[in-house]
Amino acid sequence: TLSDITMSDLNALGYPKLACKTPVPSDIEVSQQIVKEVGLLSIVEVGKQVGLTEDEVIQWGIAKAKVSLSARESRKDQPDGNYVVVTGINPTPLGEGKSTTTIGLAQGLGAILGKKTIACIRQPSQGPTFGIKGGAAGGGYAQVVPMEEFNLHLTGDIHAVTAANNLLAAALETRLFHEASQSDEALFRRLCPDGKEVSPVMKRRLKKLGIDPNKKPSDFTAEEKSAFARLDIDPSTVTWQRVLDTCDRHLRCVTVGQGAKETVKSKEKEGERLQHDRQTGFDITVASEVMAVLALSRDLADMREKLGAMVVGYSRAGTPVTADDLGCGGALTVLMKDAIMPTLMQTVERTPVLVHAGPFANIATGNSSVVADEIALKLVGKDGYCVTEAGFGADIGMEKFFNIKCRYSGLKPKAAVIVATVRALKMHGGGPPVSAGKPLQEEYTEENIELLAKGCCNLQKHIENAKKFGVNVVVAVNKFKTDTDNEIETVKKAAMEAGAFDAVLSNHWAEGGAGAEDLAKAVDAACKACDGEAFKFLYDVNKSIKEKVEIISKEIYGADGVDFSDEANKQIEQYEKSGFGNLPICIAKTQYSFSCDPSAKGVPTGHRITVREIRSCAGAGFLYPICGDIMTIPGLPTRPGFYDVDVDLETGDVLGLF
User: What is the DSSP letter of 497?
Assistant: First the structure.
């Protein structure tokens, strides 16, 4: 009972200390044990822990809640807390525990050191959850609970992104069809029927065309009617694709419009009808520009503008065609209006977590939302901590965090935590391939200092890169049971030689916040030694598109240069002509190497970055070069993770989810 608990039994937050089991059970067993045996803190109480009022917490079931943006607005005059980003080295396909370290660090700062702390992480995609990598709730005794609610559906934000993206795809496809089968007069008559007022989104298009938005449709000239009604989209310039939140390689290239009703009259042969089909494809939902808009929007109004400005293609005259041109911007915002609010959850040690947005780092911006970080920084206050995660290796997730997310938010981080494992560094030193579902070879399970030392160059390059942005770097060596003391010391020594502020062992997976206490202390010291004013961007956005891609490639990836395909060159010319040349760059490339070749380990030299195409994410506010063989929708392995997932029909418990 509560009366039997002494102060020594409580953590720094005033809750019973975590009782970790040895050996550590599976992630889902830990989560279910915490939920059933220890009990969750009321989500309202989790909010109160960092000062959220009841009207700022919109409950969404028992274990989660949406947080109103008023939580930020009402505290706008309060100082921000310390801003810390967690990133990592180039990983193995198994992942190196970056999400786990993010949660473990938050537990160490909050439950152990007593610092007001909020972790900010992304919502996981269903793709890897049922594929190879698994979810992103953390793991062991450093995870968000209940983990099955976190990893499956959450509060529906990813479903909202899917719905919004595909509504725009349907609007685009329909407009192409109707314009191919109707005259300008017929189009205008149907868009502006007698007695129907011009809608607000239509007025946006009229302003863009220089037509008085208050003018009655009946007063339009023939030229104005044609300009308004016909978007005249060039199908070869369309970049907008459909999305779904599943790894499905067979949807990478599809043909749409093959139904019997999708035909139009031939303009060349009387009486002939032609199939109105075209080749397109699917992306995974978290690669959608709608997801990027969610991650980078400041509020509902900002999101409305960004969604409306998303470019789907170009007219035959070379004019960008946007979601607002298609009449869709307002409807997209309605679908996304609840998604703009972050979701509040808790860790196994009852420290608060804000979960929001879920863009992949290899094919998108790779960071949780600006909104979540801003709310967290206000809630924790001057001496508190917002620990936010950047996806995959520091060469992609961290670079985009600094150059894109921080550029738009105006926030200045003080420290970067780079997560490293002995396993991954041995792989970078020339160890055999690491594959999901296969046992690790003896190079990874037995001490091998020589192999490890060779691979430490990968960690050192990431430290060097992080320091270019003016932040202090702390290396967290994420402990695995086969790691030896000599191996741990080898990694720490290499990190310090590369200029890290500190390098510490962290065992949060097995011990929760207590296992991350040294890491928490190191991060606390690193933030105190940095006022944030030294923070800087890698490039000036006003440089040309090619210059910005080359700066990232040479400075971060260590490339000799960049090769642009003919298609990419054509797109660059079009984007610069359209006024998009001053946008930051979000490179899509493999997460497994500094280069475009996933098999090139360590720090490759003498390589070049190949840009095969560049997509415009003008609404979200960046350009998106696609490099090498990276795919924007992953495939499934022979034995995906879903083989192990089921439900206990008596209790309703989820089984086998990691």
Answer: H
Output the six-digit token pair for 165.
């993206």
H-assigned helices in 433-565: 442-445, 449-467, 485-497, 508-511, 517-528, 545-555
> For 279, which DSSP code?
E
Helix, strand, or coil (residue 354): strand
Please state, rounded to an integer, the average pLDDT across all residues of the chain: 94
Task: Say whether 622 is catalytic.
Answer: no
Q: Which of 392, 402, 501, 580 is catalytic?
A: 392
Which residue among the candidates 220, 480, 501, 564 is catalytic per the annotation?
A: 480
User: Is 642 an active-site residue?
Assistant: no
Is residue 133 annotated as a catalytic residue, yes or no? yes
Which among 245, 233, 344 is positioned nearest to 290, based on CA atoms?
Answer: 245
* Annotated active-site residue in 469, 509, 580, 622: 509
> Which one is catalytic: 133, 306, 405, 612?
133
Q: Is 480 a catalytic residue?
A: yes
331 token code pair: 């409807």
Task: Give pLDDT tens digits for 258-274.
Answer: 999 999 998 888 889 99
Half-sphere exposure of 584 (CA within 13 A, CB side): 21
513: exposed, middle or buried (Cβ count in 10 Å: 0-12, 13-18, 19+): buried
610 strand-pairing partners = 563
Active-site residue flag, 361 = yes
**∠512-101-59 over CA atoms, to 5°?**
75
360 is catalytic: no
Which of 174-178, 436-440, 554-558, 573-577 has the least mean pLDDT? 436-440
Q: Name the pLDDT band for 30 (thresholds 50, 70, 90).
A: very high
Mean pLDDT is lowest, of 122-136, 153-167, 425-439, 458-472, for 122-136
For strand 138-139 and strand 142-145, is the pairing parallel, antiparallel, or unpaired? antiparallel
pLDDT at 1 over 50: no
pLDDT band at 133 (very low <50, low <70, confident <90, very high): low
**Beta pairing class for 320-322 and 311-314:** antiparallel
Confidence of residue 531 (pLDDT cuts 50, 70, 90): confident
Which of the residues 72, 115, 122, 350 is marked catalytic?
A: 122
Name the active-site residue from 63, 164, 171, 361: 361
Instruction: List alpha helices for 337-433, DSSP H.
Output: 370-380, 399-400, 406-409, 422-428
107 vs 136, residue with greater confidence? 107
At 134 the pLDDT is: 66
Residue tagged active-site, from 64, 66, 72, 98: 98
Enclosing H/E stretch for 418: strand 415-420
**Who contacts 318 (Cβ-Cβ below 8 Å, separation ≥6)?**
574, 577, 578
* Strand-pair partners of 233: 315
